[in-house]
């Protein structure tokens, strides 16, 4: 990322290292926060003076110190709560405050509209977290030009070289979900992915394929569908799968929402979960725990992802450059009641 | 509310009225937003000049124009998404941005901590929405002293005279839930309220009592319990109710979370919903729709409540004073599958 308007002299990361503290702690001292131990404050202040640290000019302009932007896809989804929770907590720990925008939903696609970017640059954001967004090259250049660092959480498509992003270990999650079904004896396992072009979904499907391959099972293209991550897609794709000459005995839906759509389709065909068909979701939204039956799913650590992204952003705001542009937090299988051993007879598609 | 630091001359509300436009529209013109029709802009500008409107000094200080604060109880609850969605949308319509804090959770109680208030006054917030908060007299005085208007959404306790608040029609909701159960023939109807001192919960219980009284049924104190709004409380109180010599045949839980705890208690005693016991919740969280069986509940229009609160705040920021300090948005019953006619034989508590 091109960093403009930086003062000369050491970055805050260098100061933090010299003082033997974390960047957020050094940032707290620089920003006059009180929740720092006196001895720590002394060490940091000493390092600031010794190294001749010059506060970044951005903090001294009209922009209020310490406002970071979190741009989410939609505030209505059950995701955004967990995400904002993690971001707000990590921001507060670093003495920052969070401005939230549900930008992309307004323009329909995953790209935040222009008016929003104008507002952000005019106000002088200290940094931005994007969730499920896709930036144009021009938008990225504009953020870079204003010296506004950003981190992407779960980018919609593979971000360009050099962009820092945080995501869940989607491939691993797909593998876990499929392995679980294979271990229960299922051999006809279908997958319902999200959007074809979204990385997170295709990584999950790649995990599914890897699990099949390791088990020596052949890949059947008719068992791979795309449901756009929403309930309706899960519902529709499941009906299609049931209409196959040889329907699956187990389904891995790449989002909990789609898994709930799968439940609906199965109920309509009078098939029982898990007696007739096993279902695994992905996300671990609150509703998955309360579904009837409770959904076995792959947990995405959304709060931790957002907190990690915010901590990376703080380092970038201090002039540091995180090593490794993509951070992946591991996923884990949460076993509940929607999966069971393969039934003796396969379900009739009716 | 005491308003300090106000410039003399007409308020923006007066200007808006003179120009025949809404306050948010007038505010857009004053704040230089572009999404205003040329003719409207001309009318507002003319009225501004003619009436000698002086922009409030707060907008000209170091604070960036157009940042409002939304302080929620917790960002982890399923509520906060709906709430922030409504607030963010209404803010954006008025050319404002939203800073979100999960203040109260840090300090344990419903009162935002002092550090947070310091930050807010130092930054110069344009206005604040509080959800489920309780402010001390000193905190209110401080906000007033800084000329920062605020609106409370679902205040924990009855706010003092003059404080503007928005809530759901809790009494009406309690009445709707109970009437629904009475119409199904239930006569042994219990209620599990939240915290004893929270207004929203006690209003719902008052609605329950009104419904019983209208139906000529006697009020039985042993049928009224308090579960603190959480799952665990719903679970525990339901077990107590089942251990009564004459257990209820229907339960109105004053939150969806408690209703889901009730489900757990009933499952443990091998009682079926709704065959053995009918259950009604309150809130209409996403998980209530997916619960097994889907929960009949009272819908609280959280997004609309937050949007309404934000629009009131915008009027107050413009120097207007909303008439009526408490706005209530109506609740409605969402019938799903957790309620049924009273069973022929009452459930055995086992």
TrEMBL record, chains A, B:
GO terms for molecular function: DNA binding. Pfam families: LacI, Peripla_BP_3. Keywords: DNA-binding, Transcription, Transcription regulation. InterPro entries: HTH_LacI (IPR000843), LacI/GalR-like_sensor (IPR046335), Lambda_DNA-bd_dom_sf (IPR010982), Peripla_BP_I (IPR028082). Residues 321-350 are annotated as: Disordered. This is LacI family DNA-binding transcriptional regulator. SUPFAM superfamilies: lambda repressor-like DNA-binding domains, Periplasmic binding protein-like I. It comes from the Bacteria. Residues 10-55 form the HTH lacI-type domain. It comes from Streptomyces siamensis.
